[in-house]
Write a structure and sequence with these properties.
Strand order of the largest sheet: 8-7-6-9-13
CATH topology of the largest domain: Nucleotidyltransferase, domain 5
CATH superfamily of the largest domain: ATPase, nucleotide binding domain
Largest sheet: 5 strands, mixed
Number of domains: 3
Oligomer: single chain
Structural class: alpha+beta
CATH class of the largest domain: Alpha Beta
Strand content: 15-25%
Shape: globular
Number of strands: 18
Length: about 400
């Protein structure tokens, strides 16, 4: 009879299936420590993983044979021989990231450090059905893979706007595509042969910030995106906060003004009805009594047009007021403003900062560093690739409990 042990207070029979699970969890733990802290010695891996040095040596030996982990220069001696340091070989494999907008697909191939290798941009055309879009994704993926036939690809991440059920890999609702309750993951996996993760695009960008942006230095930060819509990604204690139904972060649909402007979501007075690109463009047109495109309005403000400047300042005020509530609730160390709207964020910032400081609780705004990260669409695709990489380095069943995670740090 198989022996019985206790894990987390529960009796578990150590049969072969349990031993296989334990082996995979140990491998993932070692792999994750090397990724997060590398270059790192075997002794340090044992300390951080809680595994014996013998177990760590056996696992790292296999990873080195597979070519995923490499030995680097010796570390600093603490009295004996200088330890050999281990690190991930970023070029050993790749990931694919897909950003789906209302107009195009951006498909990126990255290395294990989420650095871009190649990108494809494909217009969606008139047919926006899931079948047509997924067929286009498959064609773009085939073209990308054919251009890099010798590269090993470990997974695919898809980021798109809307309410995403990550567990099912489905789009519950898209604000830009006529989709409701569309299963995506299984179809993409069948077409590409790759393990696939589907995620809200702002969450994907937030993971990208944790990987290779300013968020790597903080366990608690917010990413606010301004563009066609207004969104938010929330990193708490090193983990992405998704909410009970994966819908957390709908910052753009906080009601700020009762009976205010109508939002695309159907409600009135939302942040997005005042601070999205289309909302600012409509307000600017109303302010001068004629239709004006957003870039023309931006140029006019910078040339000294006070009427249009007031439109941008109102948008900044609404953003700052809404953000003050989130800051008072979550007390983040860092707020990153990103998205297409960063090209005019300087016009919003004076009123945004004033509202944020004035309405945040007792100096919380002073505690939060506010910065602007100018990302292009390629960065959204890199964020989607980071979804696949995150699961590769930290499989879900091996991750720490909430509140115990740490943001991944890419050593430069």
């Amino acid at each position: 009879m198989d022996p019985v042990t206790r894990m987390g207070g529960v009796s578990v029979r150590k049969n072969s299936a349990n031993r296989e699970l334990m082996r995979r969890m140990n491998e993932a733990s070692v792999f994750g420590v090397i990724h997060d802290l590398g270059p790192v010695s075997r002794t340090e891996i044992a300390r951080h993983s809680g595994l014996s040095l013998a177990t760590v040596s056996g696992i790292t030996g296999v990873l080195i044979e597979e070519g995923i982990v490499i030995e680097q220069s010796a570390g600093i001696s603490t009295g004996g021989r200088r330890p050999i340091l281990l690190a991930i070989d970023r070029g050993a494999a790749c990931a694919v990231g897909v950003k789906l907008t209302g107009e195009e697909l951006i498909i990126a191939l990255t290395d294990l450090g989420a650095e871009l290798i190649d990108v494809r941009r494909l217009p969606l055309g008139d047919d926006l059905s899931p079948e047509a879009v997924l067929a286009l994704l498959g064609e773009g993926f085939d073209d990308l893979r054919a251009s890099h036939p010798d590269r090993r690809i470990i997974g695919l991440g898809l980021g798109m706007a809307g309410v995403i059920d990550r567990e099912r890999g489905a789009c519950r609702f898209s604000p830009f595509l006529p989709w409701r309750d569309v299963d995506l993951r299984d179809r993409i996996e069948e077409r590409t042969g790759l393990p696939t993760i589907v995620e809200n695009d702002v969450n994907a960008l937030t993971i990208a910030e944790r990987w290779f942006g300013e968020g790597a230095s903080s366990s608690n930060f917010l990413v606010v995106t301004i563009g066609r819509g207004v969104g938010m990604g929330i990193m708490l204690d090193g983990g992405l906060y998704r909410g009970s139904r994966d819908g957390a972060g709908e910052f753009g649909h906080i009601t700020m003004i009762e009976h205010g402007r109508r939002c695309n979501c159907g409600k009135e007075g939302c942040v997005e009805a005042y601070a999205s690109e289309s909302a600012i463009q409509r307000a600017a047109s109303a302010a001068i009594g004629r239709e004006i495109v957003l870039d023309e309005a931006i140029a006019a403000v910078r040339a000294g047009d006070d009427r249009l400047a007031a439109v941008f300042l109102e948008a900044g005020h609404i953003l700052g007021l809404a953000l003050a509530g989130v800051v008072s609730l979550l007390n983040p160390a860092l707020i990153i403003i990103s998205g297409e709207g960063t090209r005019f964020v300087d016009l919003l910032m004076p009123s945004l900062r004033r509202s944020l400081v004035k309405h945040s609780f007792d100096g919380f705004a002073d505690d939060a560093r506010l910065l602007v990260e100018t990302w292009g669409d390629d960065a959204w695709a890199r964020g989607a690739a980071a979804l696949a990489l995150d699961d590769y380095f930290h499989p879900p069943d091996t991750r720490p409990a909430p509140g115990q995670g740490q943001p991944a740090r890419i050593r430069r």
